[in-house]
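Database export, one record per block. Field names are fixed; values are copied verbatim from the stored entry.
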Amino acid sequence: MREDQDAVGRGYLDILNGSPDADITIDRDDGHSDVGMNCAVYFADYEDWPELHKRAVEYARGRVLDVGCGAGRHALYLQGKGHDVVGIDDSPLAIQVCKARGLADARVLKFSQVGPSLGVFDTITMLGNNFGLFASATRAKRLMKRLCRMTSDDARIIAESRDPYQTTEPSHLAYHERNRARGRMGGQVRMRARYAGCTTPWFDYLLASRDEMKSLLDGTGWRVAEFFDHPDASLYLAVIDKADSG
């Protein structure tokens, strides 16, 4: 990713350098735009995390792969608890920020490029709605099978997602229908991020209901062990275990 494309990483770097906030604008490919995130949130100390995230990290064990590590809030916390953590992100500036904040193993790597060369993991974290990085049904199936091969027998995935259908907004409902007409999942969002003159390339981000998540796991070697709800009814956490584990 070129520096002029690294919108989110630029936001993280500005926060690290003392800016009070850095609001990222998210564009959807149907023309809808919104302020999607304030980068300062991704520097929050454990005490200020959402309760769902505090609960999530309790399920981490052994060696951890933090997918889409961002500014490193979850990876740094788990590292501080004694876990061997590898943080990956496709944003070079995000990885620069993680290293500056003390993450021992932070790598510029797209999620689609993960493989056995990273070693074997016991936990994979995908918090901050990062289940979306699976991007599509086809890629989710493929990557889930790959993750199964590069994890221990009792490994787990801790993933956060958003049910896109918990809405009455006409533009969102129309987008779901547009997706289905094109053979895509309703919550498969084509989007880009903008901040401070930087604009990412367009990319797919997958929002999935609980039933859709379970369907995506079929035949991949994984199963949902438990769902946890968020006060925002559309958000939820999934603890995903190996399909043949107890």
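Remark 1: The mean pLDDT is 95.
Remark 2: The chain has one domain: 3-242.
End of record.
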